[in-house]
């Protein structure tokens, strides 16, 4: 066997028989990678791609899954979360599909991962250089709420015409004294395009600014990708006299006692309580510090 054959053979760990490595065929992977390369070169630009049929329904993470399978390499360590939870049905099935079709190592520890596919959250742990964060995106265009015609929205992006978003924010502040964007908060990338930050909460938005990791966003239903390269300026749009505000909580996590995590409601000891959304981070704190 030639050296090249040895290299190619070693590049593909043992995976489930009957399927191509990483599920997608080579032509599909190349097409998605080309779209991602353009998206990385033009931060925030919504780039179309030929979205494939996947073994998950459109709207349930097919775009993020395609991005993951097109960019994954044999040495990858993969983590999959759904709203911060490693054990939800969506996260478990995605992780099983990725692991079975590639044979790569999977983990629930964000610190050990090199590629994280996520829905609705950024892990609480600090993410380092070289990490890739793949976001599952339901609605890719921040103009969708205000302009339903794709051709008109594309022209507005090209012209940098985001007046309708600013007008929506103004109406929110004049009526409610705050923005209605509890998630998918519109942000300006490198002083250019305005993007939707997917359904991550406002709590996570500041972590995208000058982040050391590469953020890739995949919308399978809309057949679109966009990206935020490492160390890129990501600025939530807001008025000079209205500061951008993140969610705050009056009580710590009922399980680990954290005062710095994003919390969601869960039943604890038969009663509703606020607990960490990032379940792996919460479990580790409990192990280190003991239950509250």
Automatic annotation (TrEMBL):
Record-level Gene Ontology MF annotations: lyase activity
Keyword Lyase: yes
Keywords carried by this UniProt record: Lyase
Domain of life: Bacteria
Protein name, as recorded: Carbon-phosphorus lyase complex subunit PhnJ
Record organism: Amycolatopsis acididurans
